[in-house]
């Protein structure tokens, strides 16, 4: 298994996410955009995941060459983003964000399939490879938090462009792994999705990322309103992903000790507690730190077992489309609806937004308990 080549891709991909998630809303606010406009742009950033991963997932499954699809997508994302240096304005920015994220959002679901194909029966080692994505995120948020305390945040697009180019470069290091195009028992994707447990699982994925909408869109601005500095905000983000990193590294053992279904329920319970703490106690730094540690549960443990659940539920023939559907429904539809929802209510009452996010996590936990079964091995 090409451990370091796979890991380098995760590192660069999530380093870019570490630039976008904490600082993109700050950048837009600095450029004079309103909370509603920021919510719309953030929704587009996540919303392209509804379409592009599935289109490219189908293409990767059809051709059996997912790395070729990934390389072209990464390059086109970089090229599309370069327009931000030549044009300005809200509507131009909509076009730029929609175009570059269409290709950028498409690559990670396919790369998850490539990684799982390389791991084979050693899929429990997924966490140790994916952990490098967390490291990339941590390095980016801490470094850029320090940089933007000294340099104007208007230079954020420069860092983003460099990272997009790095993603494409790292994709060239991973060799194509041939995927069998023989469909086992010709079981169609539609027949898989008809299973009640599968449909319930994707509803849960939607609700989880819906609940993260306010976090990914307004968390940094929320902390700024309460007087926290940019370096400290970077540390908050970095601390959350350090907790995520520890969880990913321990995930192979966690999967041996607990059921997939149990881990999913635990993750969603953490989600409900986390958003409640952030919404009700923003001035209590101890509780905010604890809430960030809960990121290991509200995101990392859920994601690690979700890709495993999909691996067993969709089979080899539909891996690309299964992972793409997961990305589209959760990070795409759930994240974008959450961003628009939080943007529309943010000026009215931020605390209410956090509490509704917590409620979404609690409802998702109940759905897992009632409708989602343990995957077959």
Question: Which architecture per CATH?
Answer: Up-down Bundle
> What does the average pLDDT come to?
85
Number of domains: 1
- Reading off the top of the CATH hierarchy, the class is best stated as Mainly Alpha
Structural class: mainly alpha
- What's the alpha carbon Rg, rounded to whole Å? 19 Å
Reconstruct the topology from this structure.
Layout: H1 3-30, H2 35-47, H3 52-63, H4 66-81, H5 90-119, H6 126-147, H7 156-171, H8 189-193, H9 196-211, H10 213-225, H11 230-257, H12 260-280, H13 285-293, H14 295-314, H15 319-346, H16 350-371
Helix pairs in contact: 1-6, 1-7, 1-10, 2-5, 2-15, 3-4, 3-5, 3-15, 4-5, 4-7, 5-15, 6-11, 9-15, 9-16, 10-15, 10-16, 11-13, 11-14, 12-13, 12-14, 12-16, 14-15, 15-16
Summarize the structure.
This protein is mostly helical and 377 residues long. It is 79% helix and 0% strand.
Describe the protein in words.
This protein has 16 helices and no strands. It has one domain: Growth Hormone, Chain: A (Up-down Bundle). The protein starts with a helix and ends in a 6-residue tail after the last helix. Mean pLDDT is 85; it is low at 181-186. Helix 1 (3-30) packs parallel to helix 6 and helix 6 (126-147) packs antiparallel against helix 11. With 377 residues, it is mostly helical. The longest helix has 30 residues, at 90-119. The protein has helices at residues 3-30, 35-47, 52-63, 66-81, 90-119, 126-147, 156-171, 189-193, 196-211, 213-225, 230-257, 260-280, 285-293, 295-314, 319-346, 350-371.
